[in-house]
Structure prediction request, 236 residues.
Amino acid sequence: MKLWFYYLFAFFGIILLRYFLLAGGAYWLFYFSANKSFVKQAPPTKFLSWQSVQKDIFLSVIAAIALAICAAIVMTAYDSGATSLYESVDDYGIWYLITSFFGIIFLQDTCYYFLHRAFHHPSLFNFLHQGHHNSKNPTPWTSSALDFPEALIQGLFLVAIVFTIPLHITVLILWLITMTIWALINHLGFELFPNFPQHWLGKWFISSDHHSLHHNYYDRHYGLYFTFWDRLLGTN
Ligand SMILES: [Zn+2]
Ligand SMILES: [Zn+2]
Prediction:
């Protein structure tokens, strides 16, 4: 139990540090940096509200507690060998390692789509998902702004995976990096590559425009990484 509390505090600090560095860095880079020549479409600064940024930061700190609880569960279990995580590539082979990465991304996208639709049900929305929709014009600060119960559900999804599906430790780390970067891109508030959503390949990926629309219109674009489920079920 002592170790669990040690992990809890350590991960709370790491998650917060990651948030302030990445969300703060992206916010500064795309919204305030003097040299924005690399940005083709300007961020919607005229709609910026410092009040909603403050609310997003507050919720992200709350969400960090939920995520740290889940990370501490994983690490304590990993130490005692209770998870399905593995360290030697030879255990399952290189093809399993590659397939498991893409498989886990698809699985998460699928679960997220249906959970996200459930979060928008009137009986759950206020309790689970309202906080994330505080900002009608999302910024990188919104990327981790989740109500405590929603953050806990997302964290427990990760816990369930590491207890049931064998993942190489590098796959887990790559997966965490992918979801962090994707959350930032989805919440940029403007399209970094405006032509990409029209591209034959690009239209299969959730972009900043999709997710910005979702923050205003609750009946479309529920996906996390891909537009697959939105297209199939008429919410695109
Ligand atoms: Zn939503
Ligand atoms: Zn969002």
Q: What stands out?
A: The chain is about 60% helix and 0% strand. The longest strand covers residues 85-86.
